[in-house]
Design the sequence.
């Protein structure tokens, strides 16, 4: 019997990741698994492909405690991961503290933090084990669309990275339809997160309302086109970010200040990235630091008219003083 195309598509995604830079025989790989179709299809494919090359496959699920019955769902996922052939299974419960973030962002931050701990634990002395995430081409398209709607700039339009830190996304070229079908033809029951139908979330509205309209009005393949756009932009954004890192390292003084003359000599795209790096170094939170804040800082360099300072998220203040841009935290009131 020939292999179903959907199962093949998921396995090919994992196989390409293994060939491109997966760990060697005897090493471990962690698959983050929510119990949804994407992550279960990824786990099944990783078990199949990973065992062929001698990898130890660890399934890990994270209980955010945000829904009634979440502990029971986590237990079901643990049992399911074992049934699918994971060599080891792990479950962790996290406390989600919004801390000024939206619920999705706060849950994501908590989840990634605990998965990094799992990576270090599983990898042991050999170093952090790679953690595979089940994001698909459709997730990528939604990310690009939301970034476009928010005017978030090139980095947002470049979408999700295929790999960062200890994380990797082998399924960014695989459709959500394929992961669902792969589960169905393999007899894998998957969980539909109620949040995926909650139109209070912008991503759900993009998925359920906006993308179907685009497909209907512009023709099929919009999701693939948006994902392809992300791939095309990502290399450009990575280059600009690398150049900005170099420029920042060359310009920043020991006290964290940046010379106005040096900043003024940089092209707009690099100068603004350098200023953003300086704001982040001053502990302005990345999730709250928007392009408008960076432009206000940039005006201290390019449109100086004696303005006193620029207030940034995280109680950070940027000032032009003695020919330099100085960023520092200021005391909170109360």
Sequence:
């Amino acid at each position: 019997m020939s292999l179903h195309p959907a199962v093949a598509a998921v396995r090919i995604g994992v196989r390409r990741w293994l060939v491109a830079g997966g760990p060697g025989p005897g090493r471990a790989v962690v698959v983050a698994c929510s119990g949804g179709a994407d992550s279960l299809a990824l786990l099944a494919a990783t078990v199949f492909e990973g065992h062929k090359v001698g990898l130890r496959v660890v399934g890990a699920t994270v209980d955010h405690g945000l829904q009634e019955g979440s502990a029971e769902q986590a237990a079901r996922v643990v049992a399911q991961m074992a049934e699918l052939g994971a060599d080891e299974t792990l479950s962790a419960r996290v406390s989600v503290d919004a801390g000024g973030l939206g619920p999705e962002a706060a849950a994501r931050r908590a989840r990634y933090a605990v998965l990094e701990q799992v990576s270090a634990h599983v990898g042991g002395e050999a170093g952090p084990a790679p953690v595979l995430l089940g994001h698909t081409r459709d997730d990528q398209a939604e990310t690009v669309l939301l970034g476009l709607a928010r005017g978030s700039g090139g980095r947002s339009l470049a979408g999700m990275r295929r790999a960062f830190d200890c994380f990797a996304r082998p399924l960014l070229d695989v459709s959500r339809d394929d992961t669902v079908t792969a589960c169905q033809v393999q007899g894998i029951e998957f969980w539909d997160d109620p949040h995926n139908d909650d139109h209070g979330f912008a991503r759900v509205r993009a998925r359920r309302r906006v993308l179907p309209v685009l497909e209907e009005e512009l023709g099929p393949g919009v999701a693939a086109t948006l994902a392809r756009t992300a791939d095309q932009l990502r290399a450009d954004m990575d280059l600009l970010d690398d150049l900005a890192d170099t420029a920042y390292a060359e310009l920043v003084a020991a006290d964290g200040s940046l010379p106005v003359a040096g900043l003024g000599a940089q092209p707009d795209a690099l100068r603004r990235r350098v200023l953003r790096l300086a704001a982040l170094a001053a502990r302005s939170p990345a999730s709250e630091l928007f392009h408008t804040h960076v432009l206000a800082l940039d005006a201290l360099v390019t449109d100086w008219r004696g303005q006193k300072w620029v207030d940034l998220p995280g109680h950070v203040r940027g000032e032009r003083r003695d020919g330099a841009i100085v960023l520092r935290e200021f005391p909170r009131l109360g």
User: Anything to note?
Assistant: The chain has two domains: 5-218, 252-329.
